[in-house]
Amino acid sequence: MRTRFARHRGRRSRRAATLFVAAGLSAAFGLAGLAAPAATASSHREAPLISGSPRLDNTDVYAFVSPDDASKVTLVANWIPFEDPSGGPNFYPFAEHAAYDLNIDSNGDARPDIVYRWVFRDHYKTGNTFLYNTGPVTSLSDPDLNFTQTYDLTRITRTGRTRLLHDAPVAPSYVGKASMPEYGSLRQQAIKGYGTSAKSFAGQAEDPFFLDLRVFDLLYGGNLSEVGNDTLAGYNVNTIALQVPKADLLGGGDPIFGVWSTTSRLNSYGTSVQVSRLGNPLVNEVVIPVKAKDKFNASKPALDGQFLPYVTDPELARDIQAFYHIPAPATPRNDLVQVFLTGVPGLNKDATFSAPAEEMRLNTSIPPTATPNRLGVIGGDKAGYPNGRRLADDVIDISLQVVEGELVGQPTDLGDGVNANDKAFGAHFPYVGLPYSGSRPRPAAGSAGVTVLNGGKATTGHAVPVAPALPLLPVTGGLLAAMLTGAGVLTLRRQRRPAVAAA
Percentage of the chain with pLDDT > 90? Predict the structure, then answer.
């Protein structure tokens, strides 16, 4: 696939259209008068303090109506970035003396109404070996599995606590095929039900996030020489997943809720200290500056107004302009506020919303589609990001098209050349891919054959096959308004949208 930066043509004629679109969006959704907005969340090793505690570092959050059972919602949260599959002998346990939480805001007041909390414990059969397992492991209770973990799952509300699972097993790290010849069976044994139809899972999985993270090398090498590689290909993460009936997450009759994950250290006095937080992807990583990253990780959604300037005047847009001369949209960037703070009217704004806060919001009344579009809402698919987030949503391409002005009359259709995950997702809970095995080398990140601008001249990059891009659908003004997102990394591919009607 040929890719390139967008060339900016007809600027004079587009200026009036730009002003018209911006004014229309502001009038339709009240952006101009929105008060106390904010920033936030996410990703792999994004803040100085938490990068030194990887077991407490949450990497991504996903929330979607379950594709194989639309009466339920699935929540997925991941921790421990960049797990090399062969990283023994200790491999990758969850931390003890820590609370791994999924926080649910059911009424739009920026405070958790429900908290699902996982707390883990370590177990060794013997300390007289260096081995994680002393023979082939065929079950989670196998005596050859020397190290195991269990957890308690508790549901916490403002009126009390209910323990949902006690000593539930964790799927182990995938040591290798000799040690775990049927790893899929071990995963299945780690899926535990409770109540009438809810399910919980904790264990290792392939990292479902796909993107090129080399934005940190002066925005892809400073001359676009580094593009199109899935930086996370071949790495694993630790996953917590929950599937529950929709009613378990909702307040009253409203079908919308907000969710974010947190990690807290627990001390002997029964109190906790929050050290990591994540809702929507990428903002803490590339929008929040170094001086505020640790503060964000320790903060609460109700206080997100303090991070507003980093969203309304994002550094990334200025950097892209400086390096590659693509004009940054005018500030303040009120177009980047809505999805993080309020939800989008007509899509995922809670009817009882009262307090701006950074949360991932999901409208559970929108059913899953049989033909998902990786660009989510701006691709004509309301069941995708930013209405929650599915595993296959291409949040990098979505976010960058918006940070570069998609909503204010500066469409670019840019992308990072990584359109799909390096491993297939499952059709059933917990949906995440099986982890990579420690018995094989971690695969190299693939890269697309791309044509980019290098000092004004076209240069063809190296080529390794990757999944083809899905066809893009035209975007209507209403769908564009749903994509008020404030994060992303520089995207280096321009795609032509086919002139077909949205389904």
Answer: 49
